[in-house]
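From the shared-data thread, chain only:
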Amino acid sequence: MASFRGHITFSSALGTVYGGFLWWQLGYDWGTAALAGGLTAVGGMMPDLDSDSGIPVREMFGLAAVFVPLLFLRRLISFHLTEDQILVMLGTMFVLIRYGASRVFKQFTAHRGMFHSIPALLISGLATFLAYHHPNLQPRLMVSAGVMLGYFSHLLLDEIYAVDFRGLKPKLNQFAGSALKFGSKSHWATGLTYLLLAALGGLAFLDVQPKRPSPEVAADTAGRQSPPLNLPFQGGNR
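Structure, as tokens:
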């Protein structure tokens, strides 16, 4: 199994390449490219949220408590909240993630459980897509893809380190196949993971649907339209 420092190093390098590619080759704004690259690095550490060690959990929840509220900033602004209300919401999210979510993870997750799986990878991308509100769809997709890319790098490194290449014949250790998986021995954990995946997928689908104006707005817009011209040469005036 790769070390926490190894995951950080690899995902940070991957995030630098990914962000540079978005900015230099695809022409994205440098802010969007840097955000996508930074979240790629963070995504490479996310599977270790279920770690038994205190250091990865403390570091990851510290980062999540800062990054997640910032991702929600544009969405909070779209709700037409005041500046003070937005600050309260951001502070509340920080406290809940930093102290509340960490305890929940300790109680209900097991290391190398469903948090190390392909469905969890997809959940990380969908959660980022819903949190990061942007008027254009493509930046949201690129930022979400960056998180999933970093997440996948973690799972891939764990599988690579589960193979002992010493000797003529590679050997698998006890952790082989425990990262790139679609289910676990716990039916409850597997079912809840897929239920969460389906729920986030449904919310993401609804979020990208074109927004219809409310009846009041539609009526107001119709009332402001100019009346049709009644020209003398129209058939109805003959």
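The chain is about 65% helix and 0% strand.
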